[in-house]
Design goal:
A 6-stranded antiparallel sheet has the order 1-2-3-4-6-5. The chain is an alpha+beta fold. It is globular, with a radius of gyration of 14 Å. Helix content is 33%, strand content 24%. It has one domain: Aspartate Aminotransferase, domain 1. The longest helix is centred in the C-terminal third of the chain and has 13 residues.
């Protein structure tokens, strides 16, 4: 799966390099929903989703290792060498939706309705 292309296919998604070469960050409306490392992917999630995926894939999906403890329940880091690739699109969708849910209804509509025409 081409993670970069999939992340960029989301409405108004942009690729940024705020920390140097790695991680490559994917943002919507200025908020990160995915961070791609060479062999890891860190995704935004709800606390429930985060716990569910960590339980389903112990040792493969872990709390966001780079995050401060208070933020760790809301980020999952995935070992791309051991995780089933067919599950990644679903997890990326959930990450995008988790960030989108944090915006006002007006902002969500603007992103979803006008997103593909503004890139």
């Amino acid at each position: 799966m081409d993670i970069k292309s999939y992340c960029l296919s989301k409405p108004k998604a942009v690729e940024t390099y705020p920390f140097g070469e790695w991680p490559i960050c994917y943002k919507v409306n200025g908020k990160i929903f995915a961070q791609l490392y060479e062999d890891k992917l860190t995704l935004k999630c709800t606390a429930f989703q985060g716990q569910m995926f960590r339980q389903a894939y112990p040792g493969i999906v872990v709390r966001g290792y780079h995050c401060p403890p208070v933020q760790q329940p809301y980020w999952n880091t995935i070992d791309l060498n051991r995780f089933p690739a067919e599950e990644l699109p679903h997890m990326i969708d959930l990450a995008y939706e988790a960030v989108l849910a944090g915006f006002s209804k007006k902002a969500q509509k603007e992103i979803l309705v006008n997103g593909s025409s503004t890139r």
